[in-house]
Automatic annotation (TrEMBL):
Protein's name in the database: PPM-type phosphatase domain-containing protein
Keyword list, A-Z: Membrane, Transmembrane, Transmembrane helix
SMART domains: PP2C_SIG, PP2Cc
Organism domain of life: Bacteria
Length: 470
């Protein structure tokens, strides 16, 4: 094996089998290094088979990489996804198998890397002793950590850290949807070190400890072994896989050159007036009355426009925050019970059981809660309906509510059912009946400074039958 790439996997201390797989090798044409970590989803039967299907698909498609390398990498992943779906349908015991992965292809001639990622495996770049996480964890906890709402330590200890949103094998054609796979490319400079790993490492070893190992003066084999040992020392709760790639090219040093100097003792004669191309001066028009009238009219129009825009901004500043609209009617018992249950909730999950909550629940005020995250789940489809005199929203999700999950709920007769403040919102089997504005999203942006970013396309979709998957 070459000295600039290395891969290793370990079963860990708890698992009975290793559902991880990896690739660390050169392409047959010897032009690229293929690095990949694949994690058969823990606890699902057939995860080991899903990982091996994906490994073989990648090696087949990348045996002789073509010019459009990113497209070829994506095709390899989509082919693996289709094969996993077929295997799930063919073998009953494999009906829940899936896998996540991070694939990187490195072109050392161009000092560049390309990657494709899905799930919670990770891609790191070590440059100048600084470790940068390139990939994003496609999970609830990963989202909270990447957005700064959880620290690394909190994310590593979170009970839902292994629950993923995306994987190969989750559904026919899902991997082909836009934005399902994370793809990208990055400079891979001389001296850079690439780390691909499964969550068996990232859940057990923090960033500081990883950096301390990667920056030691040792071989890639020794670094990989030290990372595995560190994960096992900290518990080894899952399979552990590590792939390392080093750019050992020599840095290009450009020789400095002096700027061209002007000859000394050279005196340039000043140009004479006749030699300069000076345009002939024209006398201003004698009658400016019409111009003055026109400018005055324009100024008046501009003043009226400014006053109108200021008035609009003044109005919006008072209507920006959706406020609960109260009615003269008293609250009914079901509404009081639901709002009190939200306020008194000890954890973050409220189950709406048929024995306690009777459908429909009529609202005369908007539902609000103070939890950082909320899972509101009904065992059977339950209806939350607007009182005939109520004109507010069914639910107002405040800025402090970072993540909201709703399941098996029908919102009926609301002009706007849910008002959200740029929160993470997940819906499962939610219906909106006679509610023309299902979800209203409001973004709080600072008044000063330059705003950068984008509003991603919604991933909500409508199904004719309820989703019964777990």
């Amino acid at each position: 094996m070459d000295n600039n790439y290395f891969g290793i996997t370990d079963i860990g201390k708890i698992r009975d089998n290793n559902e991880d797989a990896f690739i660390a090798e050169r392409s047959s044409a010897n032009d690229f290094i293929i690095a990949c970590v694949i994690d058969g989803v823990g606890g699902y039967s057939g995860g080991e088979i899903a990982a091996e299907i994906t490994r073989k698909s990648i090696l087949h498609y990348l045996a002789n990489p073509e010019a459009d390398l990113p497209l070829l990498m994506k095709e390899a992943i989509l082919a693996a996804d289709a094969q996993i779906i077929v295997e799930k349908q063919r073998v009953k015991g494999h009906e829940n198998m899936a896998c996540v992965l991070t694939l990187a292809v490195i072109d050392l001639r161009q000092n560049k890397l390309y990657y494709v990622h899905v799930g919670d495996t990770r891609l790191y770049l070590l440059r100048d002793n600084s470790l940068i996480k390139i990939s994003k964890d496609q999970s609830f906890v990963g989202f909270m950590e990447d957005s700064g709402r959880l620290t690394e330590e909190q994310a590593m200890q979170h009970p839902k850290r292994n629950e993923i949103n995306k994987a190969l094998g989750f559904g026919m054609g899902m991997a082909g949807q836009e934005d399902y796979l994370e793809t990208g490319e990055s400079p891979f400079l001389p001296g850079d070190l690439l780390l691909l790993c499964s969550d068996g490492l990232s859940d057990m070893v923090n960033k500081k400890e990883i950096v301390s190992i990667l920056t030691t003066d040792s071989s890639l084999r020794e670094k990989g072994t030290q990372l595995i040992n560190a994960a096992n020392t900290n518990g080894g709760l899952d399979n552990i896989t590590v792939v390392l790639v080093k750019n050992d090219n020599q840095s290009r040093i450009h020789e400095a050159t002096k700027p061209a100097s002007r000859p000394k003792n050279t005196i340039t004669a000043p140009a004479t007036v006749n030699e300069l191309d000076i345009p002939e001066m024209q006398a201003p028009p004698k009658n400016n009355k019409n111009i003055i009238i026109l400018l005055s009219a324009l100024c008046l129009i501009l003043l009226v426009a400014c006053i109108y825009l200021f008035w609009q901004k003044y109005q919006l500043s008072y209507s920006k925050e959706p406020l609960p609209v109260k009615t003269g009617n008293g609250k009914n018992a079901q509404e009081i019970k639901l709002q009190e249950a939200l306020h008194q909730l000890k954890g973050n999950t409220l189950i709406l059981s048929d024995s306690i909550f009777k459908s429909p629940i009529i609202l005369t005020e908007s539902l609000q809660f103070e939890k950082d995250s909320l899972f509101l789940i009904s065992k059977n489809q339950i209806t939350i309906k607007s009182d005939s005199a109520f004109r507010g929203n069914a639910m107002i999700i405040q800025s402090a509510n970072n993540y909201v999950y709703l399941e098996n709920i029908t919102f009926q007769d609301f002009n706007t059912a849910i008002s959200s403040k740029n929160n993470a919102l997940v819906l499962k089997n939610i219906q909106f009946k006679n509610s023309p504005n299902a979800i209203q999203t409001i973004y709080d942006l600072p008044a000063k400074g330059y705003i950068n970013g984008k509003i991603s396309r919604s991933s909500f979709k409508a199904d004719s039958i309820p989703n019964t998957s777990k």
